[in-house]
Amino acid sequence: MTPFDKAILWQREHSTEPFEDLLAWHLRHGLVHSTPSVFLLAHEAHYSPETNTMTYDLPPNSWFVPLAAATGHANPIAEFLRVATRPHEWAAWCRHNAFRIHAYPWTKLAARVGLGGATSVASVASERRVA
Known about the structure:
Elements: H1 3-14, H2 19-29, E1 31-34, E2 38-48, E3 53-55, E4 62-70, H3 76-83, E5 90-94, E6 101-105, H4 106-112, H5 121-130
Parallel strand pairs: 4-5
Antiparallel strand pairs: 1-2, 2-3, 2-4, 5-6
């Protein structure tokens, strides 16, 4: 079963939102990444560590991954950090259809999976100063 097929099956078994609607929304507003070993959907949001919530009325400081699937030894976290269009302060997701947000500092995740350079929050701050 491909990661794409796994994601469809998981979404249909654990959510009332149709997979097709979730995919279409991310095609328009977020990030869709699909390879033979990893499938994921992600979008930018504002994460508040004080309340452990995501909002969309403030400038984004995080990526939220609502759905990811992989095969074999593929690491969807490492793949996500590699393909995200720009790093943010946080990367977040929910596990096993629980509504609790698990958010991690981008730089710690990047270091943990062996990524560096352009995946650092410092590079984001520098981009913002230039803009």
